[in-house]
Amino acid sequence: MVQRVAIIGAGVSGLASIKCCLDERLEPTCFERSDDIGGLWKFTECAEEGRASIYRSVFTNSCKEMMCFPDFPFPDDFPNYMHNSKLQEYIRMYAKHFALLRYIKFKTMVSSIKKRPDFPVTGQWDVITKRNGKEESAVFDAVMVCSGHHVHPNFPVDCFPGLKKFKGSYFHSREYKEPEKFKGKRVLVIGLGNSGSDIAVELSHTASQVYLSSRSGSWVMSRVWDKGYPWDMLTVTRFETFLRNTLPTSVSDWLYVRRMNTWFKHENYGLMPLNRTSRKEPVFNDDLPSCITRGTVVVKPNVKEFTETSAIFQDGTVQENVDFVIFATGYSYSYPFMEDNAILKCRDNEVTLYKGILPPRLEKPTMAVIGLVQSLGAIIPTSDLQARWAIRVFKGLYKLPPVNDMMEDIDEKMGKKLKWYVQLQFSGSPSSSVCMKKAT
């Protein structure tokens, strides 16, 4: 019988998991390697090894009405879209209200998780942790992995010939914190995702010139939609889901492209996705189109190669005297604490999980990954729902289908996702998994 549950990470998914365990009268122990809660949303002045890292100016892309914990709404005076410090304040309020801190062991790193010898019978795990140089081992009936996927940067240096001889500075976007050091410099940002567009726009106010390179384009959306309502209040609805699932593909694609071009025509700005009907995760940026029209941000295609001082792009254009290159090229999945790497297996840059939560081939379903899924809406309520369902599986209140059925379900969903999002390699780059990770 499941009673003791280990939770890895005290971000929003970890906190939701603690709360859900308590609701089901289980005994959670959460291990957090830093000295604070919040995970991704806890800003630090410098990027720390093994921790998610954000820049100072990060705001949420989901509105407060759609991203709160289900049993803890945001205060009325909080803005619709929040600065990271405001969201961190809310996270602290949540943890305090439900007295969650007492279940967290801070400054404690999980170094190993492995099945016990009798796992096929008990489903139990050996969890080894380190704190202040001291190693401890404990047995848990279940494990909830809440370590997120913004920790291990995808830094595709080998995909860009000549980069190693480039005399300027280059680094991953997780190292970026604020724009002051780039004043008067020429900066190339690689990756048209949320981080790449945010950084490019912010640097456009201080750098002498910013170039934004994208290999495949992207839909760019404003946080504010029709009649001033937040975008997700209008688009993340049952009706929208119904239309998407029932309309003929050609009609659905036409409506999708039409809606994405409502704010501005992407083709005119060099942002049109190569496959315009793909449901590639949109970028949320209220200022990028204005920066492009003012020329403070120049959109460029993928980089073909670097020289000592310049970048040569796929269209043959050359940008001389580049001072900095920032790789906003996303993150890769990694679980260094897992003794058996096959349990959390990555395929096509997706971790193979049933319903995006459970490893399908365990003899006993006593491990869950919470908050890893790329959901249509906000991650906080998604993580809460995932945790509730996973705990019901742990307790035997929900019986899983046979392994073959779970694998078929995984294959079907991954096939749909690949079709919708159209994963593309860096154009002209060697075929390599490192070149296919998602940009942020």
TrEMBL record:
What membrane topology is annotated for this entry? Single-pass membrane protein
The subcellular location is: Endoplasmic reticulum membrane; Microsome membrane
Grouped into one coarse class, the protein's main location is endoplasmic reticulum
Q: What is its EC number?
A: 1.-.-.-
Enzyme class, one word? oxidoreductase
What keywords appear on the UniProt entry? Endoplasmic reticulum, FAD, Flavoprotein, Membrane, Microsome, Monooxygenase, NADP, Oxidoreductase, Transmembrane, Transmembrane helix
Give me the Gene Ontology terms describing cellular component. endoplasmic reticulum membrane
Q: Which cofactor does it need?
A: FAD
Please give the Gene Ontology molecular function terms for this protein.
flavin adenine dinucleotide binding; N,N-dimethylaniline monooxygenase activity; NADP binding; trimethylamine monooxygenase activity
Alphabetical list of SUPFAM superfamilies matching this protein: FAD/NAD(P)-binding domain
Reaction equation(s) it catalyzes: N,N-dimethylaniline + NADPH + O2 + H(+) = N,N-dimethylaniline N-oxide + NADP(+) + H2O; trimethylamine + NADPH + O2 = trimethylamine N-oxide + NADP(+) + H2O; hypotaurine + NADH + O2 + H(+) = taurine + NAD(+) + H2O; hypotaurine + NADPH + O2 + H(+) = taurine + NADP(+) + H2O
Family per record: Belongs to the FMO family.
Protein function: Broad spectrum monooxygenase that catalyzes the oxygenation of a wide variety of nitrogen- and sulfur-containing compounds including xenobiotics. Catalyzes the S-oxygenation of hypotaurine to produce taurine, an organic osmolyte involved in cell volume regulation as well as a variety of cytoprotective and developmental processes.
Q: What is this protein called?
A: Flavin-containing monooxygenase
Native organism: Gopherus agassizii
